[in-house]
C-alpha cells in the first residue's frame, strides 16, 4: 500500500510542477519531447530499412551460394541424374524454372543425407538393437518417405493427365483465335485446372525468354515428370507453334489428339483407380505394425519383449517390411504402366 501511495504522491508533484511552470520552460520541454519523438521515429525507420536490406541481401547471397553449389555438383553425371529425377518430381508442385527446381533438389539431397547421418549418430548409442538392424530400419524409413512422396506425384500426374482433353480444346480454340501461342496461353491461364496452370505458367515464362537452352530443359522437365505421350505431343505442338506457326496443321493435330486421348483416358481410369486404392491401403500397413507391437507389449509383457528382441522376431519384422515394400513397388509399377 505504501508503494501505491508513493506513486500517487510522485504524480501529484509532477502535476504541481507542470501547473506552476512558466511559459518559457513549458515551451522548451515541449520542443524537447517532440525532438526526442522524432529522433526515436527516425531511428526505428532506419532500423527497419536496415533489416529489409539485410533480409534481401542474405536471401540473395544464399541463392547465389546454392546456385554455385548446384552448378558444381551437376558436373558429376550421377548426381545430375539423381538431382534431375528429384527436380522433375518437385516441379510438379510449383511453377518455378528447371534451374530453380534443380536447386531445390540439391537441398533435398543434402537434407536426406543430413537426416540419415543425424539419425545414425543419435540413435546408435541409445538403442539396444544391433547397429546394422538400426541402419536397416532407417533405410526402410527413407524408402517409406520416398514412396509417400511418389504417391503424391502419382496423384498429381493423374490429375494432370485427366485434364489433357480439356487442355487441348482450350489451346486449340485460343490459338486459332489469336494465331500466337504465347497470347493463347496467356489468355487461357485462368481457364486451366490448377495442375495444368502450373505447367502452363512455366511454359509461358520460358517461351517469353526465347532461350533455346531453357526452353529445352523446361519442356524436358515437364515431359519427364508426366511421362505421357499426349503431354509430349502437346509440348511439341506448342514448340512448333512458337517457332514455325501453322494454324491449320496444328489445329488438325490437336483435334485428332483430343479424340484419341478421350478414349484412352476412359480405358485407363479403372486400372488407375484400383491400383491407387491398393497403394494407399498398403501405406497404412507400415505404421500398423508398430501399433501391433505396442499392443503385444501391453498384453504379453516380458514374453513379447523377448520375442521382438530375438533374432527370429527381428527377422519376422524385416521380412514383413521387405514384402510390403515389394508389394507397394508392384502396385506403383502397375499404376505407371496404366498411365
Q: What is the average per-residue confidence, as pLDDT, rounded to a whole number?
A: 76
Largest β sheet strand count, sense and barrel closure: none
Distance between the termini: 81 Å
Shape descriptor: flat
Low-confidence stretches: none
Give the helix level as a range of percent: over 70%
* Binned strand content: under 5%
Number of helices: 14
Count the beta strands.
0
N-to-C series of helices and strands: HHHHHHHHHHHHHH
Give the structural class: mainly alpha
Q: Which radius of gyration do the C-alpha atoms yield?
A: 32 Å
Give the helix/strand layout:
Layout: H1 2-19, H2 23-73, H3 77-90, H4 98-123, H5 131-162, H6 164-178, H7 181-188, H8 194-209, H9 212-226, H10 229-243, H11 247-283, H12 285-300, H13 302-309, H14 311-338
Helix pairs in contact: 2-4, 3-4, 3-9, 4-5, 5-11, 5-14, 6-7, 6-11, 8-9, 10-11, 11-14, 12-13
In a few lines, what is going on in this structure?
With 339 residues, the protein is mainly alpha-helical.
Index terms:
about 350 residues; mainly alpha; flat
Characterise this structure:
By secondary structure, this protein is an all-alpha fold. 88% of the residues lie in helices and 0% in strands. The protein has 14 helices and no strands. It has helices spanning 2-19, 23-73, 77-90, 98-123, 131-162, 164-178, 181-188, 194-209, 212-226, 229-243, 247-283, 285-300, 302-309, 311-338. Helix 10 runs antiparallel to helix 11 (247-283). The radius of gyration is 32 Å and the shape is flat.
Amino acid at each position: 500500500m505504501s508503494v501505491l501511495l508513493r506513486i500517487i504522491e510522485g504524480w501529484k508533484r509532477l502535476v504541481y510542477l507542470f501547473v506552476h511552470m512558466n511559459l518559457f520552460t513549458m515551451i522548451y520541454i515541449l520542443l524537447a519531447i517532440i525532438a526526442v519523438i522524432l529522433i526515436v521515429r527516425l531511428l526505428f525507420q532506419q532500423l527497419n530499412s536496415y533489416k529489409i536490406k539485410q533480409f534481401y541481401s542474405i536471401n540473395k547471397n544464399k541463392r547465389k551460394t546454392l546456385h554455385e553449389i548446384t552448378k558444381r555438383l551437376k558436373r558429376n553425371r550421377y548426381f545430375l541424374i539423381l538431382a534431375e529425377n528429384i527436380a522433375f518430381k518437385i516441379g510438379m508442385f510449383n511453377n518455378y524454372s528447371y534451374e530453380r527446381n534443380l536447386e531445390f533438389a540439391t537441398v533435398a539431397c543434402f537434407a536426406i543425407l543430413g537426416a540419415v547421418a543425424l539419425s545414425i549418430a543419435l540413435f546408435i548409442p541409445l538403442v539396444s538393437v544391433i547397429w546394422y538392424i538400426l541402419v536397416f530400419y532407417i533405410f526402410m524409413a527413407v524408402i517409406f518417405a520416398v514412396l509417400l512422396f511418389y504417391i503424391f506425384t502419382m496423384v498429381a500426374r493423374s490429375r494432370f493427365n485427366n485434364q489433357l482433353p480439356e487442355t487441348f480444346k482450350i489451346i486449340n480454340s485460343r490459338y486459332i483465335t489469336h494465331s500466337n501461342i504465347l497470347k493463347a496461353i496467356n489468355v487461357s491461364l485462368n481457364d486451366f485446372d490448377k495442375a495444368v496452370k502450373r505447367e502452363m505458367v512455366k511454359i509461358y515464362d520460358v517461351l517469353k525468354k526465347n532461350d533455346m537452352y531453357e526452353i529445352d530443359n523446361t519442356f524436358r522437365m515437364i515431359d519427364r515428370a508426366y511421362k505421357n505421350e499426349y503431354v509430349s505431343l502437346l509440348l511439341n505442338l506448342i514448340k512448333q507453334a512458337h517457332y514455325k506457326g501453322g494454324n491449320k496443321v496444328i489445329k488438325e493435330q490437336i483435334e485428332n489428339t483430343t479424340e484419341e486421348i478421350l478414349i484412352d483416358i476412359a480405358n485407363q481410369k479403372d486400372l488407375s483407380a484400383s491400383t491407387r486404392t491398393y497403394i494407399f491401403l498398403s501405406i497404412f500397413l507400415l505404421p500398423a505394425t508398430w501399433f501391433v507391437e505396442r499392443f503385444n507389449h501391453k498384453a504379453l509383457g516380458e514374453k513379447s519383449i523377448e520375442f521382438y528382441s530375438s533374432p527370429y522376431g527381428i527377422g519376422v519384422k524385416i521380412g514383413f517390411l521387405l514384402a510390403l515394400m515389394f508389394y507397394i513397388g508392384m502396385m506403383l509399377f502397375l499404376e505407371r504402366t496404366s498411365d
